[in-house]
Amino acid sequence: MRLVKTPNDLKGLEGIVIPGGESTTISMLLESSETYEPLSKLLSEGMPVLGTCAGMILLADTVLDGRSDQKSFDQIELTVRRNGFGRQIASFERDLIVEGLEEPFPGVFIRAPLAERVGPNVQVLSTIESPDGEGTPVLCRQRNVLVSSFHPELTNDTRIHRIFVDSII
């Protein structure tokens, strides 16, 4: 495991995690460090990636309510709305039923993106009731891409990370 801050840090990686945080800031940092293009190329070539919360936004093919200069990697057929579950004050935790896991997973949602469209090639692994009362995907996979609108890294439960690691091994 290592931090990626420059294009040189990408050398030899077998997979990458794009974590939660502020998606526009991450986008700008990827650009200013000249890491966006080489990472985009690696992802397009099939490097496995786990994107959580802001990472989901950066991997989606369509982003709603983002800045006009914000870039995405266009790696999963999803339309996501930034802060779709509400602002910081609307953060919540919910046990999630996840395909392939025997016990519920503790989902931590903080300014979480809301998946408004899921493409035909996307496998939905978990859903939750959205603010409008409909079910919405919160954990999805397409090819080498696994994304969550919640923060699995904020729990002691490593099963989502294990799903990702198992896709590399």
Features:
169 residues, alpha/beta, Rossmann fold, five-stranded mixed beta sheet, 4 helices, globular
What secondary-structure arrangement, pairings included, does this model have?
Elements: E1 16-18, H1 23-32, H2 36-44, E2 49-52, H3 54-59, E3 60-64, E4 76-81, E5 92-96, E6 105-109, E7 114-118, E8 123-129, E9 135-142, E10 145-148, H4 159-168
Parallel strand pairs: 1-2, 2-10, 3-4
Antiparallel strand pairs: 4-7, 5-6, 8-9, 9-10
Structure description:
The protein is α/β, with parallel strands linked by helices. It has one domain: Class I glutamine amidotransferase (GATase) domain (Rossmann fold). Helices cover 21% and strands 31% of the residues. The chain contains 4 helices and 10 strands; from the N terminus they run E-H-H-E-H-E-E-E-E-E-E-E-E-H. The strands form 3 sheets. It has a 5-stranded mixed beta sheet with strand order 1-2-10-9-8. The protein is globular, with a radius of gyration of 15 Å.
Report low-confidence residues grouped into runs of 5 or more.
none
Order of helices and strands: EHHEHEEEEEEEEH
Main beta-sheet annotation: 5 strands, mixed
Proportion of helical residues:
10-25%
From the N-terminal CA to the C-terminal CA, the straight-line distance is 14 Å
Global structural class: alpha/beta
> How many domains, in number, for the residues?
1
Beta strands, count: 10
- CATH C-level name: Alpha Beta
Radius of gyration computed on alpha carbons: 15 Å
The CATH superfamily bears the name Class I glutamine amidotransferase (GATase) domain
Strand numbers in spatial order across the main sheet: 1-2-10-9-8
Q: How confident overall, as mean pLDDT?
A: 92
Count of alpha/pi helices? 4
The CATH architecture designation is: 3-Layer(aba) Sandwich
Shape: globular
